[in-house]
Amino acid sequence: MRKALLTALLWLNLTAPLLAAPIKIGYSAWPGWFPWKVAEEKGLFKKNNVDVQMVWFEGYADSISALVAAKLDANCQTLNDTISPAAAGAKLKIVLTNDNSAGNDQIIVKKDISSIKDLKGKKLGAELGTVDHYLLLLGLEKAGLSAKDIQFTPIETGAAAAAFAAGRLDGVGVFAPFTTKALSTGKGKVLFSSKDFPGAISDHLVFREEFVKTHPDEVQKIVKTWFDTLDYIQKNPKEAVEIMARRAGTSIEDYKSYDSGTRIFSLAENLATFAPETKVPTNLHYQSKIIASFLVKSGLAKTRPDLNALFDARFIKAQSRTAALP
């Protein structure tokens, strides 16, 4: 009897890997990811019976590195910042679209710079290889310039905003809330932003592929928690904004000003963005091909990964079926 019980327990251990609690999800300063702080503070993960630790990163690039190094189970990051490590061999899965940047990623320059062509020869800074470096290169290409036409300084986003405010750079690529710091002296202006490149900067919950394979039920609960959080924010806007502004380190007024620059995706919009390829900027299959080609061309990635393998739509589809139930 004891032998049979021991055999059964060993079989369970082999077929159902134990979950090392808590599940660690990285996030950093971006309006589309601050809702996770609401989920944490209001106990929405626990309500869905999933043990999650939100891990805060002051430097966005550090969170990407932590995911690739398996120090996190999941991370909040952009599509292009997921394609780059995937091209280098990282096994990752995008399971949720939080939002699309619609102006909160900005190229901020000195007021005497009137056009993108005027950036030629100027000192510009951004976090190397990440989202606003990508935005800067997109803008340069649109104006017929390249990275060789500027003096580029690789610098962490918060430090870039501070360096620009101190007058040490002619321009920077930064995202909210760091845009507030960059513009705080009144000596800068927005030259262009993610609003000029619809769909180019999408923000996601990205898991390590191994975790998704071994713990799909937990992934599903976390996806559900995200939509529960959006519902909570809609019903309790004052309290939610206070929580998010506190995490952002900004005033409530400044935080509210970020609303128009971040388009939070509904469940229906998630279904559309994960759908089979269509020539719509927000479609992940379509946009990922554009991004991958650009990253290789600009030297930010050596090769294109298997893009279809990046996307796992089953959790969004399952959430949609559940949400449709009476």
Automatic annotation (TrEMBL):
Belongs to the bacterial solute-binding protein SsuA/TauA family. Keywords: Signal, Transport. It is found in: Periplasm. This is Alkanesulfonate transporter substrate-binding subunit. PANTHER family: ALIPHATIC SULFONATES-BINDING PROTEIN-RELATED, TAURINE-BINDING PERIPLASMIC PROTEIN. It comes from Gloeobacter kilaueensis (strain ATCC BAA-2537 / CCAP 1431/1 / ULC 316 / JS1). The keyword Signal applies. Residues 35-240 form the SsuA/THI5-like domain. Residues 1-20 form the signal peptide. GO terms for molecular function: ATPase-coupled transmembrane transporter activity. SUPFAM superfamilies: Periplasmic binding protein-like II. CDD domains: PBP2_SsuA_like_6. The keyword Transport applies. It comes from the Bacteria. One of its GO terms (cellular component) is membrane. Its main location: periplasm.
